[in-house]
Amino acid sequence: MRLRTGVGYDVHAFAEGRPLVLGGVNVPHTRGLAGHSDADVLAHAVADALLGAVRGGDIGKLFPDTDPAYAGADSLVLLAAVAEKVRAEGFAIIDVDSVITAQAPKLSPYRDCMRENLACAMGIAVENVGVKATTTERLGFEGREEGISATATCLVCRAD
Ligand SMILES: Nc1ccn([C@@H]2O[C@H](COP(=O)(O)O)[C@@H](O)[C@H]2O)c(=O)n1
Ligand SMILES: C[C@@]1(CO)OP(=O)(O)OP(=O)(O)OC[C@H]1O
């Protein structure tokens, strides 16, 4: 049995006039995140964790931000494509955990919906997906509310 772990990290800056999409949830807020896609920083971190585990590069390599095909893309669709790539390599996704670092808005009311969305996109059970949120006690770029970061880990396995 081959076990692999992966880690993913992403950052997006706040921008006026954009929706805030986190784990596929449209979170009510005064601003959203800038990006070529829907800028779902959580979905991107999870996708990069999966790609790391199968040595598959990163989402920038798979879905270049110079490609108009990904302009405004739903990042859950990108995550689903990454999960398919993981399975094509013969790996099953065992577990995913993540943390969103955001001073605001309050994210705990949306946590379970994000878990459901991510699990559905990856084709795994919701109990195998963790989402947490933390502030930085106003320290750093997240604390100054300049942007949001997300970190994710995963465990995958292949029967060889
Ligand atoms: N954007 C956020 C940040 C945090 N939370 C929740 O608040 C708890 C306390 O956060 P600290 O940064 O003060 O440790 C945290 O454990 C989360 O449950 C949140 O909902 N949204
Ligand atoms: C997701 C992609 C898709 O074009 O665009 P962005 O939303 O800009 O996200 P980022 O994490 O900066 O880079 C990955 C990109 O490939």
UniProtKB/TrEMBL annotation:
Its cofactor is a divalent metal cation. It comes from the Bacteria. A divalent metal cation binds at D10, H12, H44. 4-CDP-2-C-methyl-D-erythritol 2-phosphate binds at residues 10-12, 36-37, 58-60, 63-67, 134-137, 141, 144. The record marks H36, T135 as: Transition state stabilizer. It is an enzyme of class 4 (lyase). GO terms for molecular function: 2-C-methyl-D-erythritol 2,4-cyclodiphosphate synthase activity; metal ion binding. Binds 1 divalent metal cation per subunit. Pfam families: YgbB (PF02542). Pathway: Isoprenoid biosynthesis; isopentenyl diphosphate biosynthesis via DXP pathway; isopentenyl diphosphate from 1-deoxy-D-xylulose 5-phosphate: step 4/6. InterPro entries: MECDP_synthase, MECDP_synthase_CS, MECDP_synthase_sf. It catalyses: 4-CDP-2-C-methyl-D-erythritol 2-phosphate = 2-C-methyl-D-erythritol 2,4-cyclic diphosphate + CMP. GO terms for biological process: isopentenyl diphosphate biosynthetic process, methylerythritol 4-phosphate pathway; terpenoid biosynthetic process. Its EC number is 4.6.1.12. Residues 4-156 form the 2-C-methyl-D-erythritol 2,4-cyclodiphosphate synthase domain. Involved in the biosynthesis of isopentenyl diphosphate (IPP) and dimethylallyl diphosphate (DMAPP), two major building blocks of isoprenoid compounds. Catalyzes the conversion of 4-diphosphocytidyl-2-C-methyl-D-erythritol 2-phosphate (CDP-ME2P) to 2-C-methyl-D-erythritol 2,4-cyclodiphosphate (ME-CPP) with a corresponding release of cytidine 5-monophosphate (CMP). Belongs to the IspF family. Homotrimer. This is 2-C-methyl-D-erythritol 2,4-cyclodiphosphate synthase.
